[in-house]
Amino acid sequence: MRRAGLGEGGSGGYVASGYSVYEEENEHLQEGLRAKVNALKSLTIDIGTEVKYQNKMLGDMDSDFDSTGGLLGATIGRVKRLSRGSSTKLLCYMLLFSFFVFFILYWFMKLR
Prior knowledge:
It is built from 2 helices and no strands. By secondary structure, it is mainly α. The protein has a domain of 71 residues. The N terminus is likely disordered.
């Protein structure tokens, strides 16, 4: 007596169709994983590009700060040499004027 799906090779049909379902599910999951890996790859490439750009900017800023430090050091040296002279009153006026100008600039920046 044969029933639907039972008998010779009947269970083999179920196994083959079950295997096919698992293969399709695996391929679907594999495609999803491939898409995620590609997204991560492009993200890491973008991060690498950004890191290179930021390192270049930091290098440029370092050289700018070095040159500014040299200029500031030379200016401080001139101010010290000026203070050693007899014109200390002139130095005091110059410092007060500088503080006044910086205060006015700070005040204008604060209002904006």
